[in-house]
Amino acid sequence: IPGYGDSPPARMVTAEGRRNFLDRVLQDLSMQKPVLVSPSMSGRFALPFLLAQGDRLAGFVPIAPVGTKDYTAEQYQRVQTPTLILYGDRDKRLAPQALQNLQHLPEHRVAVLPGAGHACYLDKPEDFHRALLRFLSQLK
User: Domain range spanning residue 62?
Assistant: First the structure.
């Protein structure tokens, strides 16, 4: 994600700029109906894209993403993208907030990984992949 970790600073300071950046990435990679997996800070990119262009996605997998409180229940309710809300039960800060907001997505299901924290995919990789593969196998 631009601007996080060791990556160069982000030039995308608005939700529209971040949405457009992700759109360009998907276009440059010639991706048709991908499943977008969005852990933590990537929510700042994924959520604006989901809300504006969710019909371009085959599925969405938010993993305790940031930024969920920036949108209304009504905005989430308009999204028809199949969604797997995934988080670790030891993530007591961001995951509950994300779940509270993302549960307004009409096509969602939830998977909680016992014994996993915020980076549940690192804490419990086998459980994470099992949940992800189960969700992917159910997509049309």
Answer: 33-137
Per cent of the chain over pLDDT 70 is 91
Q: What is the DSSP letter of 12?
A: -
β-sheet with 59-63: strand ranges across = 35-39, 59-63, 83-88, 108-113
User: Residue 53's closest CA among 74, 73, 26?
Assistant: 26
Tokens of 19: 């949405």
Counted domains in the chain: 1
Which tokens go with 91?
């993530």
pLDDT digits (tens, 9 = 90+) for 9-22: 555 578 888 888 88
* CA–CA separation, 29 and 48 (whole Å): 19
Structure tokens at 9: 């600073």
Angle at the Cα of 92 (from 129 to 96), degrees rounded to 5? 80
Give the residue numbers annotated as catalytic, written as ranges. 40, 91, 118
What number of H helices and E strands is found in the chain? 6, 4
Which of 119, 140, 104 lies closest to 37, judged by CA?
119
Does residue 121 belong to any structural domain of this protein? yes
What is the enclosing helix (H) or strand (E) of 115?
Answer: none
13 belongs to a structural domain:
no
- 25 found inside a domain: no
